[in-house]
Design brief:
8-stranded parallel β-barrel; TIM Barrel
């Protein structure tokens, strides 16, 4: 048999190279830890600049180019989803009492700017729907379910709103807006992630909304996570959100070994930001995006 000519050899080499590139692309596209970029998540909006969980804070985060806005939801007296971190209104408004002591209308009348020195006044406590309407298809949203034990059924209500949002995003009124599919390297048709400290609440959300990525928030009391716990979390979460003080290379690697993303919270300065990047985390939650 004669030796193959050079043209044949180069064709075979070229075909092999194309196959290898295709395989690499497929693996990267299917791996939630593929290097699509370092995520910046604005904690309660750009809360280092504007009153937390207000439209001013969210719009500032948008202006600064954040990948996500993060915010918290509670239930009002009339069981409407409202965006506020605490289960009381005392810290962020001039009123006192539990969030669920007040109706949605009463909460909307409160000035939520007490916690900031910003000169922007009259920032209201927002219904969840107002935030969804404003940022539909424009920014990704990380929704934190607060106090799930305090509000039985809150997961179902959040799921109902998200389903309506999915339908709206696919309807004609949002054609031409930025489509957020796959943001953060996770298949995500509407740019929403839902998180909670309560693992059972997170699992329930996953069951209710199997197409929406969920994140397990880790509290310092839950550290260190056992291998069994990490395996269980990896069965239904896409993200593990970890306190920055407790993160090290070993924890990051253990999470990445399970093909899940690590997000560090809450980053407040450049030194912490650089340390998180050196550890290889996939993004940060910060009061100072941008």
């Amino acid at each position: 048999m004669g030796r193959p000519n050079k043209a044949y050899v180069w064709r075979r080499a070229g075909l092999l190279l194309v196959i290898l590139l295709c395989v690499t692309f497929i693996v990267s596209a299917s791996n939630p830890n593929s290097p699509e970029g370092f995520l910046i998540i604005a904690h309660r909006g750009a809360s280092g600049h504007e009153a937390e969980n207000t439209m001013a804070a969210f719009e500032e985060a948008e202006r600064l180019g954040s990948d996500f806005i993060e915010f918290d939801v509670q239930l009002s007296k009339d069981r409407k989803l409202v965006v506020i971190h605490d289960d009381k209104v005392d810290r962020t408004t001039k009123h006192t009492g539990d969030v669920d002591d007040y109706t949605l209308g009463e909460l909307e009348d409160m000035d939520a700017g007490k916690s900031t020195s910003s000169d922007k006044k009259d920032e209201k406590i927002l219904p969840l729907q107002d935030v969804m309407d404003r940022f539909a298809g424009k920014m990704a949203m990380l929704i934190e379910i607060k106090d799930s034990k305090l509000y039985p059924g809150i997961e179902e209500q959040v799921a109902e709103v998200v389903r309506r949002y999915e339908q709206r995003l696919n309807s004609t009124d949002l054609k031409g807006t930025r489509h957020l599919k796959g943001i953060g390297g996770v298949e995500n048709s509407v740019g929403i992630v839902i998180q909670s400290y309560d693992f059972e609440s997170t699992r329930l959300i996953h069951n209710l909304l199997p197409n929406i990525p969920v994140a397990a928030l880790i509290h310092e009391d839950q550290h260190p996570l056992s291998d069994d716990t990490l395996d269980a979390l990896a069965s239904f979460t896409a993200y593990i959100h970890y306190p920055k003080e407790l993160l090290d290379e070993q924890i990051v690697q253990r999470i990445h070994d399970r093909n899940r993303k690590v997000i560090a919270w809450t980053i407040q300065n450049d030194e912490d930001m650089e340390r998180m990047k050196e550890l290889g985390v996939d993004g940060v939650i910060t009061d100072f995006p941008g």
